[in-house]
Amino acid sequence: LFTDGITNKLVGCFKQPSEGADAAGTPEPEDVVLIRVYGNKTDLLIDRRKETENIQLLHRHGYAPALYATFANGLAYQYVPGVTLTPHTCQDDAVWPLVARRMAQMHRVQPDGPANPKPDLPAKLDQFLRLVPDRFTDPHKDERVWKVFPSVAQLRNEFEELYGRLLATDSPVVFCHNDLLLGNVIYDERRARVTFIDYEYAGPNHQAFDIGNHFTEFAGIDEIDYGRYPTPEFQRRWLRAYLQEYDKGAPVTDVAVQRLYVQVNQYALASHFLWSIWALIQAEHSTIDFDFVQFGATRFLEYRQRKDKFLALRCDDD
Question: Where are the transmembrane segments (predicted)?
């Protein structure tokens, strides 16, 4: 049983005895199948049919593990050798360029469907807000939540105002992972390769949201430290590597890097907002041993703290 996730439960099934095991008894990747069991009530948050389609689409492009089977409350998929990123390795010079390039490659994927799809962000936020309970079943949670958060109506108005500002940055809509926390990036040091996993929220969205969301995850989950949010210097290096891949090797100007830098940091605000609301729903329904109220409150307070500074950022060519 893998215990890092805060949405689902993940079980590894190993062939025993493994004929392909090495001298240390480590099984070969083909001898392992991963079974993900969906968290309680997560069907309220996630379109499982769409998730299956996303995995199949990205596997065809070589960006996702193979899907072996789906069932009522989970799925089975290919094991990917490697280790998940940590708040330290995500800024390692051997690792972050791989992540930047892989995200750029994924953003170039053209899924089936409309030529100009609408971004998922506003609809997903609306869905989440509709699921926030008026009163939490646990009175202690209820008290803790409403000490930090305003009413759902006020949250809705706040996001509408924020999203209006974000739309003005003109971030393009691409195929996004939308949940690229560190635990969803597998780093294979031997092959110098990264693989993204868990495409539950994948779909069309603003390019800058996907990158900004990833940067917010540098803070970690169990012990969140927003002092680890990447510096402007690091971000610009990361974004330049991303654009070199996304633009297929065309020259990348400082102006293009700065424009994306502004977009990414402003959409990072939307990431904080979205996942803080998600955490409130999880606080009501999840059976996983995790303090979702604290997680949501921390992200919402970080949103408030960063909002004015990030929205004040400007591109050099404005």
Answer: none
